Amino acid sequence: MFKKILIANRGEIALRVIRTCKEMGIKTVAIYSTADAESLHVRFADEAVKIGPPASADSYLNIPKIMAAVEITNADAVHPGYGFLAENADFAEVCEEYGVKFIGPSAEMIRKMGDKITAKDTMIKANVPVIPGTDGLLKDLKSGIATANEVGYPVILKATAGGGGKGMRVVWNDEEFQDQWDSAKKEAKASFTNDGIYLEKFIEEPRHIEIQIIGDQYGNVIHLSERDCSIQRRHQKLVEEAPSPFLTKKLRKEMGEAAVNAGKSINYEGVGTVEFLVDKYKKFYFMEMNTRIQVEHTVTEEVLDQDLIKEQIKVAAGDKLGSKDYYPTLYAMECRINAEDPYNDFRPSPGKITSFHSPKGHGVRVDTHAYAGYTVPPYYDSMIAKLICKARSREDCILKMRRALDEFIVEGIKTTIPFHQKLMLDEKFISGKFNTSFLESFDLGEAEK
Ligand code: MV4
């Protein structure tokens, strides 16, 4: 087992990893920017290295500085968390070359899944259903229009270097094809310096359902069931839950098997997520694969009573997995509490938290790095807490979430708490009949005084 893990991240996930390391008897090293000197991950780690000024490029994204921290602290593994360098193949490669274990898949694997066309091609070979469309890059406008007519409008143009919605354009007919093609290419070039575009049939009003998998270094891959992440706004997830109210037993089994096949076909090592779109006919299609631990891993932890960070560290250290897949016996839901103003287009609301009380009681979990007196810096992601509730049914889980949200006091900044309170009272949400378009028509109403 590792002796000392450097956590190349900040915020709640840095704290989350430190907690598990402590329980496993592993020493921890925090890195921090000058904006995070008062952060809890700095306080609770065994050692902390200040690596630079607030800007991510000079701190949490700066590979040479992080490697210097690894060097001076003698850490034997690096946990990248999520975001920042978690899916940066160059960082994984530098770790490999330096001889420090990157807790995650190989640089080669990250690269393979980061290129969406390569990922999709890999899934086709593993017999995982994919969305009909071009095989490989679209060569030019003319062949694009021809393919669009073959698969039938509407179609969607996607950047092969993309993910998370950037460089995506929906096209409804031949007439608007050229404009959308030009703007997708332009955006892809500006965002990724790679303007490679591919085309797919556009799946209307899909559910976003993802399967958690874990693979060891011996070719064993198991799945840990699904999470429904359909409640999103501009590609930012706000609520995740498991099990999905949309899945049947049969579909759950099929998607689980598809995800395991996906993982096995690439000898996947570490925790990963296979994202699917599920259409209204309950047909599922591979969308992309995330090669990191995700924000919402906590939902799976609660329904399965498993510590995913512990399992992740164990497989990275060379432990063997058992062969059984896991199916949930409980219901869990996560609300992301962000320092944003939901009544003002979710505009970021950094600043000093003057008062902070997190909900407690049976079935309530709060993962957070925030506290009364903490200042939310403006430089990073706005998530300040994850509120996770679990119960025996979805209905009870929603009741518990309402109770927990009512107990959650954050003063001094605006948060997404009022949004979640309204959502938990929405009939459509309560009925479970929603899809990824749900929030486009969700009316938050007026702020209460
Ligand atoms: C799609 C799609 C419909 N059809 N692909 C959004 C992020 C990126 N990872 C892929 N995305 C989508 N791809 C086809 N062929 C709809 C989306 C999409 C979406 C997917 C999941 C969750 C929320 C979404 C919101 C808008 C669009």
Question: What would you note in describing this structure?
Answer:
- With 449 residues, the protein is an alpha+beta fold.
- It folds into three domains: 4-103, Rossmann fold (3-Layer(aba) Sandwich), CATH 3.40.50; 132-201, ATP-grasp fold, A domain (Dna Ligase, domain 1), CATH 3.30.1490.20; 207-440, ATP-grasp fold, B domain (D-amino Acid Aminotransferase, Chain A, domain 1), CATH 3.30.470.
- It has 14 helices and 22 strands.
- It has an eight-stranded antiparallel beta sheet with strand order 13-12-9-10-11-14-21-19, with helices on both faces. The protein has a five-stranded parallel beta sheet with strand order 3-2-1-4-5. The chain has a three-stranded antiparallel beta sheet with strand order 7-6-8, with helices on one face.
- Strand 1 (4-7), helix 1 and strand 2 (27-33) form a beta-alpha-beta unit.
- The model has no long low-confidence stretch (mean pLDDT 96).
- The chain binds ligand MV4.
- Ligand MV4 binds at residues 131, 156, 163-165, 200-203, 206, 208, 232, 235, 277, 287-288, 436.
Task: Give a brief outline of the structure.
With 449 residues, the protein is of the alpha+beta class.
Low confidence ranges: none
**Measured on Cα atoms, how large is the radius of gyration?**
22 Å
Report strand %.
Answer: 25-35%
Main beta-sheet annotation: 8 strands, antiparallel
What compounds are bound to the protein? ligand MV4
Provide the number of structural domains: 3
User: By helix and strand content, what is the structural category?
Assistant: alpha+beta
- The CATH topology of the largest domain is D-amino Acid Aminotransferase, Chain A, domain 1
CATH class of the largest domain: Alpha Beta
> What order do the strands of the largest sheet run in, or round the barrel if closed?
13-12-9-10-11-14-21-19
Beginning-to-end CA distance, first to last residue? 54 Å
Estimate the mean pLDDT confidence. Answer: 96
Count of helical stretches: 14
Q: CATH superfamily of the largest domain, please?
A: ATP-grasp fold, B domain
